[in-house]
Amino acid sequence: MRFQVRDRLLGFGEDYWIEDERGDKAFLVDGKAMRLRDTFELKDTQGRVLIDIHQKMFALRDTMVIERDGEALATIRRKRLSLLRNHYRVSLADGSELDVSGKILDREFAVEYDGELLAVVSRRWLHVRETYGVDIVRDDADPALLIAVAVCVIHLAEKDRDD
User: Fold this and answer.
1) CA-CA distance, 86 to 90, in Å (whole number)?
2) What is the 3 state secondary structure string of the chain?
3) Cβ atoms 21, 5 nearer than 8 A
4) What local confidence, expressed as pLDDT, does residue 141 receive?
5) Phi, psi for 22 (deg, rounded to 5)
6) How far apart are CA 110 and CA 112, in angstroms?
7) Within 10 A of 140 (CB to CB), how many other CB atoms are there?
8) What 3 state SS string does 60-95 have?
9) End-to-end CA distance of the chain
10) What is the pTM of this model?
């Protein structure tokens, strides 16, 4: 499955659609402005909230939390001992981890679980400016979670760059 995200619209407080490979609306990112922390919801086409995403308050390092139905699903932060700033760890609620590495700010990176590729984020496939694709490689992967991970990692990398 491949999804298309319009990068120039990526911002908290703004709403935008993520489209599937046919150009149909698949997910709505509903940004929540006027909050103390960066917050948004990932919704399906019927408006049901699939995933809540927010910045963790009072963390030593910038951290994003992904929740589903009020339960923590994942915590995302930059790897502590990474020489490259483009390496993030996604700690899942079940104790397992996803590894995100590559050129995050260039929108060229991969999401792996235990050395197995789950998703690839890239601008190379698309000819539309300011757009990147999220290609879900495994059929049994959770597309909403992987899209949320991609959006969070990009947000954290941009925030880190601006600081």
Assistant:
1) 13
2) CEEEEEHHHCCCCCEEEEEECCCCEEEEEEEECCCCCCEEEEECCCCCEEEEEEECCCCCCCEEEEEECCEEEEEEEECCCCCCCCEEEEEECCCCEEEEEEECCCCEEEEEECCEEEEEEECCCCCCCCEEEEEECCCCCCHHHHHHHHHHHHHHHHHHHHC
3) no
4) 93
5) -90, -5
6) 6
7) 6
8) CCCEEEEEECCEEEEEEEECCCCCCCCEEEEEECCC
9) 34
10) 0.86
Whether 115 shows a pLDDT value over 70: the answer reads yes
Q: C-alpha angle with apex 153: 148 to 155, nearest 5 degrees? A: 95
- Please report the sign of the dihedral spanned by the C-alpha atoms of residue 124, residue 128, residue 130, residue 135: negative
- Give me the residue label for tokens 């597309």: 143
Please report the pLDDT score of residue 95 as a whole number.
Answer: 96
Strands 25-32 vs 15-20: parallel, antiparallel or unpaired: antiparallel
When mean pLDDT is compared across 39-53, 77-91, 109-123, 129-143, the lowest value belongs to: 77-91
